[in-house]
Protein backbone atom coordinates (compact mmCIF):
# COMPACT_ATOMS: atom_id res chain seq x y z
CA UNK A 1 0.00 0.00 0.00
CA UNK A 2 1.10 3.21 -0.83
CA UNK A 3 1.45 5.71 1.84
CA UNK A 4 -0.08 8.95 1.40
CA UNK A 5 1.54 12.09 2.54
CA UNK A 6 -0.44 13.92 5.03
CA UNK A 7 -1.13 17.41 3.96
CA UNK A 8 -1.70 20.03 6.46
CA UNK A 9 -5.16 21.24 6.24
CA UNK A 10 -5.30 24.90 6.07
CA UNK A 11 -8.08 26.54 7.75
CA UNK A 12 -9.82 28.94 5.57
CA UNK A 13 -9.86 32.48 6.76
CA UNK A 14 -13.14 34.21 7.18
CA UNK A 15 -13.61 37.02 4.80
CA UNK A 16 -12.55 40.39 6.18
CA UNK A 17 -15.35 42.42 7.55
CA UNK A 18 -15.94 45.92 6.53
CA UNK A 19 -14.68 48.18 9.29
CA UNK A 20 -17.34 49.94 11.34
CA UNK A 21 -17.53 53.54 10.40
CA UNK A 22 -18.81 56.17 12.74
CA UNK A 23 -21.04 58.88 11.55
CA UNK A 24 -19.16 62.06 11.40
CA UNK A 25 -20.55 64.93 13.40
CA UNK A 26 -20.70 68.24 11.68
CA UNK A 27 -17.70 70.41 12.46
CA UNK A 28 -18.19 72.83 15.35
CA UNK A 29 -18.14 76.41 14.29
CA UNK A 30 -15.89 78.53 16.42
CA UNK A 31 -17.48 81.59 17.91
CA UNK A 32 -15.62 84.70 17.10
CA UNK A 33 -15.50 87.29 19.86
CA UNK A 34 -17.12 90.53 18.87
CA UNK A 35 -14.83 93.45 18.87
CA UNK A 36 -15.65 96.19 21.30
CA UNK A 37 -15.98 99.60 19.81
CA UNK A 38 -13.01 101.84 20.40
CA UNK A 39 -13.56 104.43 23.14
CA UNK A 40 -14.49 107.82 21.89
CA UNK A 41 -12.06 110.61 22.48
CA UNK A 42 -13.05 112.94 25.32
CA UNK A 43 -14.64 116.15 24.25
CA UNK A 44 -13.69 119.42 25.75
CA UNK A 45 -16.40 120.73 28.06
CA UNK A 46 -17.90 124.06 27.30
CA UNK A 47 -16.99 126.69 29.79
CA UNK A 48 -20.13 127.87 31.56
CA UNK A 49 -20.32 131.17 33.35
CA UNK A 50 -20.06 130.88 37.11
CA UNK A 51 -23.10 132.26 38.90
CA UNK A 52 -23.08 133.56 42.40
CA UNK A 53 -25.41 131.53 44.63
CA UNK A 54 -28.53 133.42 45.59
CA UNK A 55 -28.58 131.85 49.08
CA UNK A 56 -25.72 130.40 51.10
CA UNK A 57 -25.68 126.60 51.00
CA UNK A 58 -26.75 124.85 54.22
CA UNK A 59 -25.27 121.53 55.28
CA UNK A 60 -27.67 118.70 54.41
CA UNK A 61 -27.25 116.93 57.76
CA UNK A 62 -28.21 120.02 59.74
CA UNK A 63 -31.29 120.65 57.61
CA UNK A 64 -32.53 117.06 57.84
CA UNK A 65 -32.03 116.49 61.57
CA UNK A 66 -34.69 117.96 63.85
CA UNK A 67 -33.42 120.45 66.37
CA UNK A 68 -33.40 119.51 70.07
CA UNK A 69 -35.86 121.12 72.46
CA UNK A 70 -34.74 123.96 74.67
CA UNK A 71 -33.12 122.91 77.91
CA UNK A 72 -31.49 119.79 76.41
CA UNK A 73 -27.73 119.40 76.41
CA UNK A 74 -25.81 117.26 73.94
CA UNK A 75 -24.04 114.44 75.76
CA UNK A 76 -22.94 112.01 73.02
CA UNK A 77 -23.38 110.29 69.67
CA UNK A 78 -24.38 106.78 68.65
CA UNK A 79 -21.40 104.91 67.17
CA UNK A 80 -23.13 101.56 66.51
CA UNK A 81 -26.52 99.88 66.90
CA UNK A 82 -26.98 96.21 67.75
CA UNK A 83 -30.40 95.26 66.40
CA UNK A 84 -30.70 91.81 68.00
CA UNK A 85 -30.15 93.29 71.45
CA UNK A 86 -31.74 96.73 70.88
CA UNK A 87 -28.57 98.30 72.25
CA UNK A 88 -26.87 101.46 71.02
CA UNK A 89 -23.14 102.01 71.53
CA UNK A 90 -22.78 105.65 72.59
CA UNK A 91 -19.62 107.75 72.95
CA UNK A 92 -19.98 110.39 75.66
CA UNK A 93 -18.74 113.83 74.63
CA UNK A 94 -19.58 116.00 77.59
CA UNK A 95 -21.40 115.96 80.91
CA UNK A 96 -22.57 112.81 82.64
CA UNK A 97 -25.50 110.43 82.33
CA UNK A 98 -27.10 108.35 85.09
CA UNK A 99 -29.65 105.55 85.18
CA UNK A 100 -33.07 107.20 85.48
CA UNK A 101 -32.18 110.29 83.38
CA UNK A 102 -34.41 111.21 80.46
CA UNK A 103 -32.65 111.22 77.06
CA UNK A 104 -33.67 112.36 73.58
CA UNK A 105 -32.13 110.55 70.56
CA UNK A 106 -32.23 112.63 67.37
CA UNK A 107 -31.06 111.69 63.87
CA UNK A 108 -32.04 111.96 60.23
CA UNK A 109 -34.76 109.32 60.57
CA UNK A 110 -34.94 108.72 64.32
CA UNK A 111 -36.40 110.97 66.99
CA UNK A 112 -37.46 109.44 70.30
CA UNK A 113 -37.33 110.04 74.04
CA UNK A 114 -36.82 107.44 76.75
CA UNK A 115 -35.67 107.00 80.33
CA UNK A 116 -32.23 105.39 80.79
CA UNK A 117 -32.86 101.97 82.31
CA UNK A 118 -29.65 100.03 81.62
CA UNK A 119 -26.07 100.98 80.75
CA UNK A 120 -22.93 98.86 80.45
CA UNK A 121 -19.23 99.61 80.09
CA UNK A 122 -17.13 96.63 78.95
CA UNK A 123 -20.01 94.21 79.75
CA UNK A 124 -20.28 95.51 83.33
CA UNK A 125 -23.45 97.29 84.46
CA UNK A 126 -22.82 100.87 85.59
CA UNK A 127 -24.97 103.54 87.23
CA UNK A 128 -23.21 106.59 85.76
CA UNK A 129 -20.97 107.40 82.78
CA UNK A 130 -18.86 110.52 82.23
CA UNK A 131 -17.36 112.34 79.24
CA UNK A 132 -14.89 110.32 77.17
CA UNK A 133 -16.41 106.92 77.94
CA UNK A 134 -18.07 104.61 75.43
CA UNK A 135 -20.96 102.54 76.73
CA UNK A 136 -23.87 100.36 75.70
CA UNK A 137 -27.35 101.79 76.19
CA UNK A 138 -30.55 99.73 76.05
CA UNK A 139 -32.95 101.62 73.76
CA UNK A 140 -36.67 101.28 73.07
CA UNK A 141 -36.50 102.20 69.37
CA UNK A 142 -34.06 101.79 66.49
CA UNK A 143 -31.10 104.15 66.79
CA UNK A 144 -28.68 104.71 63.92
CA UNK A 145 -25.01 105.60 63.68
CA UNK A 146 -24.32 109.35 64.01
CA UNK A 147 -27.59 109.95 65.91
CA UNK A 148 -27.11 112.55 68.62
CA UNK A 149 -28.03 111.80 72.24
CA UNK A 150 -29.32 114.72 74.33
CA UNK A 151 -29.92 114.76 78.07
CA UNK A 152 -33.37 116.22 78.67
CA UNK A 153 -33.77 118.80 81.38
CA UNK A 154 -35.31 117.46 84.57
CA UNK A 155 -38.37 119.48 85.67
Annotate the secondary structure layout:
Blueprint: H1 60-64, E1 73-82, E2 87-92, E3 96-98, E4 102-106, E5 111-115, E6 119-121, E7 124-125, E8 128-130, E9 134-138, E10 148-151
Antiparallel strand pairs: 1-2, 1-10, 2-9, 3-8, 4-5, 4-10, 6-7, 6-9
Description:
This protein is mainly beta and 155 residues long. Strand 6 and strand 7 (124-125) form a beta hairpin. The chain has one helix at 60-64, and strands at 73-82, 87-92, 96-98, 102-106, 111-115, 119-121, 124-125, 128-130, 134-138, 148-151. The longest helix is centred in the middle third of the chain and has 5 residues, at 60-64. The strands form 2 sheets. An 8-stranded antiparallel β-sheet has the order 5-4-10-1-2-9-6-7, with no helix packed on it. A two-stranded antiparallel ribbon has the order 3-8. It is built from 1 helix and 10 strands.
Kindly, what is the distance between the CA atoms of the first and last residues, rounded to a whole number of angstroms?
Answer: 152 Å
Q: Output the strand order for the largest sheet.
A: 5-4-10-1-2-9-6-7
Per DSSP E runs of 2 or more residues, the count of β-strands stands at 10
Oligomer: single chain
Tell me the Rg in angstroms. Answer: 43 Å
Number of helical elements: 1
Mean pLDDT: 82
| Low-confidence regions | none
Summarize the structure in short.
The chain has 155 residues and is mostly beta strands.
Descriptive keywords:
about 160 residues, two-stranded antiparallel ribbon, about 30% strand, elongated, mainly beta, about 5% helix, eight-stranded antiparallel β-sheet
